[in-house]
Amino acid sequence: MIDPTRGVLFPHQLPRFTRLAPPPEASELIAWLWVPQWNLPPGVESHQSLLAYPAANIVVEPTEVRLWGATTRASERVLRGSGWAVGAVLRPAALMKLSDAPAELVDGFVEVCAPDLHEAVAAAMPDEQAAADALSRWLIARVGTTTAGGRLANEMSDLLLSDSRIRRVEEAARRMLVSTRTFQRLTRRTVGVSPAAMIRRRRLQEAAQRVREGGGSSLAEVAAELGYADHAHLAADFRAELGLTASEYHRIIRSISESVAWRLPADAPRKPRSRM
Predict the structure, then answer these.
(1) Residue ranges of the HTH araC/xylS-type domain (predicted)?
(2) How many angstroms separate the CA atoms of 97 and 7, rounded?
(3) Quick one: which of 55, 44, 59, 101 has its CA closest to 273?
């Protein structure tokens, strides 16, 4: 099962943040829904750092509705003042119906003209469940019936993002009983990124979670258990996506406290806006 909390790099810095399961009738379209709300004093900022799942999100905010593509780097959003958002992590079956070119959305977004959706969600807030239900109903009506191809794409995504035994694209393709080339085309067409990128993101999320939660394992042991060739490869992946190594992240997590905020390094490769 996919753990929706895994990609949050500094959980203690989150504002009020709720994750909700989709209604049964939307389970083939939505992985989960998320609703942050914040009300910060003047001059106070909250930096939200995220290593998101490689999936699209549709997000309703007070002034806009956007469809965000999958991300390839850690991202950060700076919260100020007061606000809210209601988002849904989309399964491939939904994205296939909302976009003809998911790859063009990667690390970006498009505005969605959906005044009915915005009105329904805004009217429901601050009732998080009611707002999430409004978004779910809109998606069901907009997307319609899930196709066999959509279900196949969902199965592919679930396999890559939840089965830690899958470390190579060829292994995933064999499990799905398709060729490696077919598998690669399917992920790019329905998610927008390669299956190798999805596996790499899952392993890095798992590594960050293991480092964050402790448990007594050394970083070398974590690297070995997650299938990295050695500690150096894990450190390289951390550096490439977060702008710091696993050892540096471990030291930050150990030293951080509720009263000390931390943010990604200024030179870390990231996008200015993030999806939770």
Answers:
(1) 150-252
(2) 26
(3) 59
Token pair in block for residue 65 = 């509705």
The whole-angstrom separation of Cα 116 and Cα 104 is 26
- CA 34-117-54 angle, 5° bins: 40
Per-residue pLDDT reduced to its tens digit, 123-141: 999 999 999 999 999 999 9
Residue 258 neighbours by CB under 8 Å, 6+ apart: 12
User: Domain extents for the chain?
Assistant: 11-143
Which pTM does this prediction carry?
0.86
Run of H or E including 86: strand 86-90
Rounded CA gap, 209 and 187, in Å?
25
Mean pLDDT for all residues in the chain: 87
Give the residue from 122, 125, 107 showing the smallest Cα distance to 18.
125
Q: How far apart are CA 93 and CA 144, in angstroms?
A: 10
